[in-house]
Amino acid sequence: MNMNLITNTEDTIAAIATPPGQGGIGVIRISGAQALAIADRIFASRDGAKPSSFKGFTVHYGDIIDGKKNEVMDEALLTVMRAPKSYTKEDIVEISCHGGIVSLRAILILVMELGARLAEPGEFTKRAFLNGRIDLSQAEAVLDIIQAKTDAFLQVSAHQLKGELSTELERIREQLMDIYLEIEAVVNFPEDDIDDGKKAHDAREMGRVIGAAKERVGQLLRTGEHGRILKEGIKIVICGKANAGKSSLLNVLLRTPRAIVSEIAGTTRDTIEESAQIKGIPFQLVDTAGILEPRNLIEEEAVRRSHLCIEGADLVLFVFDASKDLTRDDERLMHVAEGQNVLAVLNKCDLPMRMDEAAIKKKYGMARTVNISALKRTGIEQLEEAIVKHVWHDKKIDTHGILISNLRHLSALLSCQAALEKAGGILSDGLSLEFVSEEVKIAISFLDNITGRNIDADLLDNIFSRFCIGK
Ligand code: GDP
Asked: What superfamily would CATH give domain 236-392?
């Protein structure tokens, strides 16, 4: 590991830990050997005691004082957590004061004048990792929790933070390590009197353990698709001719109590993109323009984009106006959506049905046709169920187990799997055990990559730079 990273942890760091802007309360966090000494100089406790005498996990009421001017800056609550029982395993002081940005900054500057350095993004969590409180996959879970867009992904990240992924990887690692050490012993201290029968038995046993480890890594890899969807969401495109009820449906889907609505920057005039969650799965809903006969260049561009959207969708909600006959416009759009993962949504079912429902069901299948009224909000629950079903393809959503959602983890697991595959191959070809141990060592190093036992300093900096300051 890079020395720079290690010496850096000797500084005492400080940052505003609450989001920028005004708030009821703002928190300044200080971590490091000087944290309590700094607190002694700026905090006047009501009972006159000094922070350096406070016990860990205690909160004290008092004033923040600017010693130079002998002025009270704010009243505050001071929380002390003593090393090693703290987030960073160092002494931590948290000052909770009134949440105005000017007063928070002034206090932070005071803290820095007394010897603390401004923390880098994620530096508190990085210290928790470097000081051995959490491993890298847990540190990444902290980031995931902060950035989680849905309840389901929050749950997955919370499990990862508890160390469930780390424990699982550690279990695989231990088994592989046993094999590695066994082979090293055989290679370095060969015993001539071992008969061929025992050798063959040992090799079979190694092959079994390597095979089992490969299978478990494979299982973890197979959760990647679920993990990706839970983390990043899935792209649902709503299409249909003008007036079919696309915008109405979009609004209904966004207004369900389970939905968290947020505007996506860069919304264009021809497509509306919103993110929402339906039954815990994050969705990016795109409402395409219903233009079919472009009258000018701008509309031509809009049509081109909505076609691209349909092609790039994970799921297309094709909205029909069921109170009317199928039109040429419907047919043209059906042609564009051909070959996609389509759900046919027969809208306006509150009105007398004119559309040939049987024909639509024949084309898209019973399970892929849902009758709704966006206006009266009927059939929406069934539609949501159908959406979830066709996104997961009937796979059970299991957020309690381990789900791999991080690309870095996926890629390390793939490499680990490849190395185990090679190790197994070498073993069954009866080649020298040294080659097997080489591959097993590579497989272990990829597992260590995920937990951070073995990781490049630049990569580490890159991971933590994605955190916010104060975390
Ligand atoms: P879009 O052009 O496809 O986005 O369609 P809109 O959502 O703007 O809806 C077009 C018109 O159909 C509006 O006047 C809506 O109020 C109406 N509409 C939408 N959904 C329904 C429905 O389920 N039943 C009825 N009766 N009218 C609807």
From this structure: P-loop containing nucleotide triphosphate hydrolases (3.40.50.300)
